[in-house]
Design goal:
Order of helices and strands of chain B: EEEEEEEEEEE
Strand content of chain B: over 45%
Largest sheet of chain A: 6 strands, mixed
Oligomer: heterodimer
Low-confidence stretches of chain A: none
Structural class of chain A: mainly beta
Structural class of chain B: mainly beta
Mean pLDDT of chain A: 96
Largest sheet of chain B: 7 strands, mixed
Largest interface: A-B, 27 and 25 residues
Number of strands of chain B: 11
Distance between the termini of chain B: 40 Å
Shape of chain A: globular
Helix content of chain A: under 10%
Number of helices of chain A: 0
Low-confidence stretches of chain B: none
Radius of gyration of chain B: 13 Å
Radius of gyration of chain A: 13 Å
Shape of chain B: globular
Strand content of chain A: 35-45%
Mean pLDDT of chain B: 96
Number of helices of chain B: 0
Number of strands of chain A: 9
Helix content of chain B: under 10%
């Protein structure tokens, strides 16, 4: 149950696009299409942004999109806004039916 | 409106025990798998445990296996986490979370989270 690998931080200017990567193994990210992404603002509970690699829950902006290639999943945020500044976590189903998170990525909007 | 309200977090000594509870409302509780996820102060999210919709399957992170027990009472719309042999590294905010899929028995995604209950293990 090793954590998925995410960059510690990313940054971008308002209006730009950024991508956060999430690397696992064939026993988690690469083996299943159950990758999800969560946004967490300071002092708040996480919020689901993407599930099943690329699906957005109702109410989540279409500026958020997800994809996967091999053992690496990605979250892309286009048209960056100040309110997007937060921590982002990826997660995946694993071969033991359990869950595993990435270490988290701090997004800074410059 | 879906609501998940955790309780039971306190300061406990190393080696002690604690039971967390999560009261659920606003959805058909016994249709959904439920999860515990924790977050140590200033750290990332860590999946802890899950229980299937019917309670028939349970799974644990290696870090808590053999010490924590997840359970549910569908008649009371409640989820529990019995925590034994607590260690300093168990200090965290513990979130109760609802799985996105009905009748699931694994970690797929969670669409609702509680606000968390703080467990501090310290002498």
């Amino acid at each position: 149950q090793s954590a998925l690998t995410q960059p510690a931080s990313v940054s971008g200017s308002p209006g730009q696009s950024i991508t956060i990567s999430c690397t696992g193994t064939s026993s988690d990210v690469g083996g299943y299409n159950y990758v999800s992404w969560y946004q967490q603002h300071p002092g708040k509970a996480p919020k689901l942004m993407i599930y099943e690699v690329s699906n957005r829950p109702s109410g989540v902006s279409n500026r958020f999109s997800g994809s996967k290639s091999g053992n690496t999943a990605s979250l892309t945020i286009s048209g960056l806004q100040a309110e997007d500044e937060a921590d982002y976590y990826c997660s995946s189903y694993t071969s033991s039916s359990s869950g595993v998170f990435g270490g988290g990525t701090k997004l800074t909007v410059l | 409106e879906v609501q998940l309200v955790e309780s039971g977090g306190v300061v406990v000594q190393p080696g002690g025990s604690l039971r967390l509870s999560c009261a659920a409302s606003g959805f058909t509780f016994d249709d959904y798998a439920m999860h515990w996820v924790r977050q140590a102060p200033g750290k990332g999210l860590e999946w802890v445990s899950l229980i299937s919709w019917d309670g028939g399957s349970t799974y644990y992170a290696d870090s808590v296996k053999g010490r924590f027990t997840i359970s549910r009472d569908n008649s009371k719309n409640s989820l529990y986490l019995q925590m034994n042999s607590l260690r300093a590294e168990d200090t965290a905010l513990y979130y109760c979370a609802k799985d996105i899929y009905a009748h699931s028995s694994g970690w797929y995604a969670v669409d609702y989270w509680g606000q968390g209950t703080l467990v501090t293990v310290s002498s």
